[in-house]
Amino acid sequence: MSAGVRLEGLRKSYGAVEVIRGVDLDIQPEEFVVFVGPSGCGKSTLLRMIAGLEEITGGDLFIGDRRMNDVDASRRGIAMVFQTYALYPHMNVRDNMGFSLKYAGMKRDEIRRQVDEAARILGLEKLMDRRPKDLSGGQRQRVAIGRAIVRHPEVFLFDEPLSNLDAELRVQMRIEIARLHSELRSTIVYVTHDQVEAMTLADKIVVLRDGRIEQTGTPLDLYDDPDNIFVAGFIGSPKMNFLPVEAQGGALTLTEHGGQTVPMPPVGRRLEDGETATLGIRPEHFRKEGEANLEVTVEIVENLGGETYVYARQGASDILTIATGGVRGVRQGDRMTARFSPSDALLFTPDGMRIR
Amino acid sequence: MAQTRLGRNENAAGWAFVMPALALIGLFMIYPILWSLWMSFQTGRGMNTTFGGFGNIQRLFADPIFLTALGNTLIFLAIQVPIMIMLALVFAVMLNNPRLKGRGLFRTAIFLPAVTSLVAYSILFKSIFSNEGLATQVVAFFGGPQIAWLAEPFWAKVVIILAITWRWTGYNMIFYLAALQNIDRSIYEAARIDGVPARAQFFRITIPMLKPVILFTTIISTIGTLQLFDEVQNITQGGPSNATLTLSQYIYNLTFRFMPSFGYAATVSYVIVVLVAVLSTVQFWVARDRR
């Protein structure tokens, strides 16, 4: 029932402004793919192009084996869930879910059966006679998902479906969507700007910036092995620390951190003496042990209970974020030594590409 | 509850502020309304009136001119209001299409009649539909018959309906356009993806969502048509042979053109009040929320 999606050199322009600049992507059947990126990166536009809501300026779109560039949205075998839910406000839950089936020529009994089945999957049975205005945000979004399910689409498209929900509901619905995917085994393309959603839901994450794909891979691939400084900074929370360095006799001098030296991370090529680079180190990679250490002064402490984030500086350097685990008793103004193992650190060229 | 002195002072100041407005409303609205109700039970001509009980109401049913005026008004109502509401809806939906070029221009053009003077446009329509008028010439140009627009009862009614439709369609359209622009675009995108045809989108999504606005415009249009006066007074003077005479015009005639019959005119006025109340109730009932 589920189909793959293939994008080949996909482009989109509004007049002279190019918003999607040649995207190639292969989505396997049953795969859960998440488009993630900052505001304005083109992730929603790309999804709407797959949906048929935006015209394609260049390149080819295939769903299954069919080229879909000029096929009407209703004939692409897709269903979409919108950020604003897009429910019909004057219809009750049952009619909202069954409305499209009427126009697909389905018999009334069959519609009823399909809608009841979707309601059962989503736990909506008791709400069937309510109107959207009498439902909570999470319930509305479940109805919107139900409306997609009854059509048995080959591909589900989700456009920031959880952005209008509060934090607690968002976590609940996230789990719900993951459960649905494992139950329905359908292809899902999901857009979000929330990298936690991306990390937890995706089989494959596509990081977009300025209408281009920066990197594609499994969540852990992107976390452990980012191709460039943008992906490294975008994936992971809190954000990775970036320290300007200069190679000096097989070690790295931290140019903005009082000229301190740390061992060179294991990379495939030798850096010339005097070559500048950026050292990337995740907050959670600072530990009690490690060959490299930084002397810092604590500026702000965030105690989350199970985790403590320390924001610290070394002289006039940029702020470093350090995750200290459950360590308590750290105060503003304290001096501390942040240690890390060079093998956990990543190196980037001045133009942001990874040095492997 | 015991009031503090500050509270009393504030109350006095409040009343002082609203008093001028209340006095004017009382003098020019509430007093005439109550007085006309009293008058509607008076019979007689000019200032010579006596209490006549339900005499005026009995007179209504035996008055052929009143019955003609009532019939004309209801015909205008039954034909013009639905046509205008449908037209306004269609225009609004068309103008709401973001891909339409020159939307602002069309919107202004369609709304503009609503801000023209009633008398000025009535005179214009009178000239367009005169014997040598534009409409007559256009019909003749296409080989149609010579129509005496303002001299034949049927065509005179058509001219009045055309005139008020021209004047008020844009006015109603603006309400629909405002309501349409408040509808989340993704509702239509969802419908498009779900394969709901355009016709069904209009009748099953747009119209139900605009229902409160449609109800509102239907009621104000109904009230407006029941009070129809300016157009008929200026275009046809109620003619030919009372074919376009409306209730408001009849009230005017009873009061100012014939030997003044204030009591009976007040009774006819209350017929309009009753009609508005009844029709509005019916419209609310038809548009009620069925669950």
Features:
heterodimer, A: 356 residues, alpha+beta, Rossmann fold, OB fold (Dihydrolipoamide Acetyltransferase, E2P), 2 domains, six-stranded mixed beta sheet, six-stranded antiparallel beta sheet, 8 helices, 21 strands, B: 291 residues, mainly alpha, MetI-like fold, two-stranded antiparallel ribbon, 1% strand
Number of strands of chain B: 2
Fraction of residues in H or I helices of chain A: 10-25%
Query: What would the CATH topology of the largest domain in chain A be?
Result: Rossmann fold
- Described by its quaternary structure, the protein is heterodimer
> In terms of structural class, how would the helical and strand content of chain A be classed?
alpha+beta
Number of individual domains of chain B: 2
Description:
- The complex is a heterodimer of chains A (356) and B (291).
- With 356 residues, chain A is of the alpha+beta class.
- In chain A, 24% of the residues lie in helices and 33% in strands.
- Chain A folds into 2 domains: 5-234, Rossmann fold, CATH 3.40.50; 241-355, OB fold (Dihydrolipoamide Acetyltransferase, E2P), CATH 2.40.50.
- In chain A, α2 (93-103) crosses α3 and α3 (108-122) crosses α4.
- The longest helix of chain A is centred in the middle third of the chain and has 18 residues, at 167-184.
- Chain B is mainly α.
- Chain B folds into 2 domains: 5-39, no CATH class; 56-286, MetI-like (MetI-like fold, Orthogonal Bundle).
- Chain B contains 12 helices and 2 strands; from the N terminus they run αββααααααααααα.
- Chain B is globular.
- The mean pLDDT of chain B is 88.
- At the A-B interface, β6 and α2 of A face α8 and α9 of B.
